[in-house]
Amino acid sequence: MAANEFRAIIVTRTEDETGKRHQSAELTTVTDDVLMDGDVTVAVEFSSINYKDGLALMGKPGVARVWPLIAGIDLVGTVESSTDPRWAPGDQVILNGAGIGESHHGGLAERARVAGTSLVRRPDAVSAVRAAAIGTAGFTAMLAVLALERAGVAPDSGDILVTGASGGVGGVAIALLAARGYRVVASTGRGGELGDYLRGLGAAEILDRHTLDEAGKPLQAQRWAGAIDSVGSFTLANILAQTHQGGVVAACGLAQGPDLPATVMPFILRAVTLAGINSVEAPPALRVQAWDRLAADLDFDLLDGLTEVIPLAGSFDAAERILAGRVHGRTVVDVRR
Ligand SMILES: NC(=O)c1ccc[n+]([C@@H]2O[C@H](COP(=O)([O-])OP(=O)(O)OC[C@H]3O[C@@H](n4cnc5c(N)ncnc54)[C@H](OP(=O)(O)O)[C@@H]3O)[C@@H](O)[C@H]2O)c1
């Protein structure tokens, strides 16, 4: 391959004669000419498959917003060149979100050109493959833990519920909370199959997610000092209704649905706080804080246990599996393989 060529997974959108749009993705070889504006060029080593990547790779709308687009909302690699004074060739960097894989070329490629502003220096304690295993999912889990802490939820406040427990965000959230001494209850649809795995991450108790996923009363028995929710919809409404006086719920996802069929009762009668989590737009200082805490708090043996590493061409199969709910933990893509 010529020096200016690299492999990339490109998402394209076409329109047929009836005006119907079709989106698809393929692994192909491109040249540096396709790279978008940016002040830092990175030799990418690893990316990962998040739910959003699954949607983009399987031709679903809602993630890619420009076409053609290199997919991948995460990247980990080494700076090749930079006109941003903060970065120099050889620097080890991480980028989660900030529009890559959505409106700017992403990490499922051997090369990326990005804005230096959102890059984070990879902490020495976190290897490149582990940084990708953490990825957007783990970064989001850390942002959610920080949101609970900022609002005063402490290990002695009471039980913390984590929904979507077998997913990427859920798994890392359980490990992070348990490492800090919180008692974690893991809500999952796969307790039979994955109960041991979730207990291994630190869950003290497993809850069947179907106990939360239908319409419930506006106020219910108070069970949670805090919660990290990847699920939304009725599940989030029930969690709010079950949260203690003064408790905090961090909402990060919509695996059940984007709706929130709740009442204001938990807010006005129990002073419950609903904290929104947005990893994509996280400001630079918060990114650095979250990565410092991930480096300090996460048990890397546990992380290795929830990680599968695949080659770039394996991304499509992994995308199909994450959409079908057949993945647990995290899938890292070694883009050089
Ligand atoms: N706010 C942000 O910045 C941000 C960042 C990353 C991700 N997200 C969102 O957070 C969510 C989780 O992301 P992820 O990467 O962890 O995805 P994931 O690995 O696919 O995990 C999602 C988990 O949700 C549960 N689930 C799936 N369908 C469900 C349903 N219909 N009802 C209830 N639970 C269901 C499953 O866990 P069980 O089998 O254990 O029940 C599944 O493993 C996604 O909605 C994603 O888009 C948001």
Overview of this protein structure:
With 337 residues, this protein is α/β, with parallel strands linked by helices. The protein folds into two domains: 5-122 and 306-334, Medium-chain alcohol dehydrogenases, catalytic domain (Quinone Oxidoreductase, Chain A, domain 1); 137-276, 3-Layer(aba) Sandwich (Rossmann fold), CATH 3.40.50. The chain has helices at residues 51-57, 128-150, 168-179, 191-201, 233-241, 265-270, 284-297, 300-305, 315-323; strands at 5-15, 21-31, 40-49, 69-70, 74-82, 92-96, 111-114, 120-121, 160-162, 184-188, 203-208, 224-229, 243-251, 273-276, 307-311, 330-334. The strands form three sheets. Strands 3, 5, 6, 7, 8, 15 and 16 form a seven-stranded mixed beta sheet that branches. Strand 9 (160-162), helix 3 and strand 10 (184-188) form a beta-alpha-beta unit. Helix 2 packs across helix 7 (284-297). The two termini are 14 Å apart. The model has no long low-confidence stretch (mean pLDDT 97). NADP nicotinamide-adenine-dinucleotide phosphate (NAP) binds next to helix 1, helix 2 and helix 3.
Spans of 5+ residues with little confidence (pLDDT < 50)?
none
Order of helices and strands: EEEHEEEEEHEHEHEEHEHEHHEHE
Number of helices: 9
Rg (CA only): 20 Å
What's the CATH class of the largest domain, please? Alpha Beta
Mean pLDDT: 97
Largest sheet data: 7 strands, mixed
Would you identify the CATH architecture of the largest domain?
Answer: Alpha-Beta Complex
**How many domains make up the coordinates?**
2
